[in-house]
Batch of 2 targets.
Target 1
Amino acid sequence: MKLAEVPKEQLPESKRRMNAEEQRAHLAQKSRDRARIQAEIQKLRVERNQFLSREFNEDNAVATLDDAIIGAVREQGRRKNPAWE
């Protein structure tokens, strides 16, 4: 959709007061801001994945809630019936 095709009534009040050139400049700035933010998000996503890989690799396994619950149930079962696995 092109900016010129959007009826003025559908624009926010702040954009209605702008002329076409100001609207184009504003949209271009917003596009640059969005691209910068998206690049930052991607960079942080990569850093997060690297962190998680380092912290939760198989050599440094961290017990999950599932592991804790299963371990507790097994321990309770062994206390009540030593032959229980």
Target 2
Amino acid sequence: MQVYSAGYWMPGIRGTGVGVVHAGLILIHPFREGNRRCSRLLSLLMGLQAGLPALDFGGIRGSENKRSIAAIYASLDRDYGPMTDVYARVIARTLKVRVNASRSGGA
């Protein structure tokens, strides 16, 4: 199993593996339902392995959800940049929520 360092995941670094893994699993996953949930679970585990807090996918709704779906389609052509961008935002949100919670005494 590949071990990921926290630096591998930092927002803004292109080429984070989680976007590629997420898109790849969705594209090969043989089930009609649950592909995104399974991919997010794997992403969450990869992030925890790298020392990140549990990823917060709560921001993927509305226009961000549309960008996420478009990123999956872009991955069909091996263009993983859009999915990497989606995950950079997920990671940034996760870290921001974590910092805000720790400042308010919630974490």
